[in-house]
Fold this protein.
Amino acid sequence: MCRRWLEEPELRIAELDVCCVMLNRDQFFPGYTLVFTREHVTELFHLDTETRHRLIDEVSRVAGALNTVFRPAKMNYELLGNMVPHIHWHLIPRFRDDALWPTPVWSRPHEEVLLSAQERRNRIAAIRGALQEER
């Protein structure tokens, strides 16, 4: 996740107190966003209580912003870390008309949806704007 932040600056949405927020390159699920700790930590229990609470607050704030922009039927929160051992959430707005509804996003492969540079900038700007309102 640390490397991804450096290598894909065009996907950056925000740097918060505890987390970094990035748009996922594949937008098959519109609004799919990654939220990861600025500090390289692998488990929630490695964080002190105050930092863990602030982290959850920031994840919730990003989810609220995504809800404002995309108005999904449901927000999916995935915190795995098996392949990328760094605390990170996949926040995935889900819609009743998406191709994999109501199954998990990992249930079947799909073709990637890559936005044009302008579409990506517009989507990031909309999320940033909503994130500012979530304070």
Summary: Residues 49-70 form the longest helix (22 residues). The radius of gyration is 14 Å.
